[in-house]
Predict the structure.
Amino acid sequence: MPAVDVRKSVRGEIFTIWPRRLPFLLLFCALCALIFCNANATAQQAKNETLTAVAGVKVGHHTLSERPTGCTVILVEAGAVGGVDVRGAAPGTRETDLLNPVNLVEKVHAIVLSGGSAFGLDAATGVMRYLEERNVGFETSVAKVPIVPAAILFDLGVGDPKIRPTADCGYRAATAATTDPVQEGDVGAGAGATVGKLAGSKRAMKGGIGTASITLPDGLTVAALVAVNAVGDVVDPSSGKVVAGVRTEDGKGLADIRTFIRAGVLNQVKPGQNTTIGVIATNARLTKAQAAKIAQMAHDGFARAISPSHTPFDGDTIFTVATGVHQGNADLLTVGALAADVMAEAIVRAVHQAAGIPGYPAARDLER
């Protein structure tokens, strides 16, 4: 019996079969790639635990890094029911009277958070221009008027106080707004934000922008965005520990302002040079009065994560925007409780995501 070259036989079989199977193999690879890409895209969407997790909400920042300062714009171009609650004694705001439930206009088209103290309110003018160009606003007999409430924080003590957000800053932030996960830390209204100033600015630390969200199994989403510029310390509610704030005299640790208060040894603080400002967004259907109530309840998040909060030296303000696209009947208590939770989480994230600037180390610097 003649010898058979097995290797040659196998090779021949492979090369005979390969051309016939190639189209099927290519199709199989293409299907695998498609499945992988879809799974990856779904995972990316699932990772959005920021304010833009609420459908219909866009966020944009513009940062003036030369100081630093800036503004943050929350766009709801389709309109969203608005509410507000001001708890600090030194606020700087615009269009908050309009949000009183007894007043006419129900929906807002944007919210502006800005540095620059009262000068920063000018950023809202740029956002109005942006919206007017896109024919977005409250319908009147002669024109559509964009409804753009705003709030500011005092950051003029950081860098050159002559550099502050203008109308152009607001326009640029609106132009940059997207539905992507929101950038946190030293951006927009949080660029010049600081915390822990009750023992003087030399022992303060860097604040910033933070955001968080939660989505329930039925699709209800509640999210928060906040610019943290508190006179007090930032406390992690999960541990009760200070994570950023007044530093020890050597600047290497955290002093815990609660011990100062209990000992009665606070320094004199100049009024109005602080302020934490934020926004709650939800897809729940709310009335204007309910939106105001959610803003009130969200202030519990300030109280949990900032010590002390709502002081005579802060202008603490929270807005609510409710898009109303959620099909279920959202319970007001649930929405408000979640609003407080995500606001507290956003505050803690703001200081963890911030990077230090000259004279103001960040939480990450002290953790090393």
